[in-house]
Specification:
The structure is a single chain. The chain is mainly α. The chain has a single domain, classed as Orthogonal Bundle (MetI-like fold). The protein contains 13 helices and no strands. Helix 5 packs parallel to helix 8, helix 8 packs antiparallel against helix 11 and helix 9 packs antiparallel against helix 10. The two termini are 32 Å apart.
Amino acid sequence: MRVAKISARAWLPIPPAIIAPLFPIVLLALWSVSARFGWLPPQILPSPGEVWAALLDMAHSGDLAGNAGISLLRVVEGFAAGSVLGLLLGVAMGLSPKTEDYVKPLFTAFAQVPTLGWIPFLMLLVGIGEPLKVLVIAKAAFVPVTLNTLAGIRAVPPMYREVGALFRFSRWQLLRKVVLPAAVPPIFTGLRYGLTHAWNALVAVELLASAEGLGYLLVWGRQMFWLDTMMAAMLIIGIVGFTLDRIMAAVEARLQRWRLA
């Protein structure tokens, strides 16, 4: 076993921080070679230079900043609404088994319907304006935040509650000073999943019912057969989604510094 470990390390002399970017670099190189030698026609796969030029054009014209700002505002509003409702419901079910018995069956049925499955029904209720986008995004964030908050509160060791009772904490003090800090990891896992689902739902609803936003840029590029514009929009969507996840990870690490003893 020791020999196997040594030989495995010998095959990996490069630090992981350097290995991680190699995969996208290799993909970019294959993309460039494919475009250079015409393995696929430009109507299907434009070159990286064409995509970069389209990205610069959208940046200079203001289309990129305007549509990205609209998408970010939508996801912030929807994610905030869904997260607050999810935290409240998760805490209520986690602290009260009776509340869970009453609410959990209906919540489970609600969660089983995919987010996109609610779009036709919501269109009938609120139309295709901004409320539709916010409601779809809120639903996408609501489910994972609720489930992970419930799991996090239920996973708090009973001895923590006993310590709170020893100090004669009120119900609110017990929740704020004991239960929620101990449940931070699963709660933030739910928030990160919720943000990822919210961002995916944003792009989907903008593809179906929007005249603005990054998802709309995808539709616009496809309709006009501007594949470079479409791929530039895809690149921005991926970068923004990755950045939002990294921000949430940094906030989570900061809130858990007390655990590093």
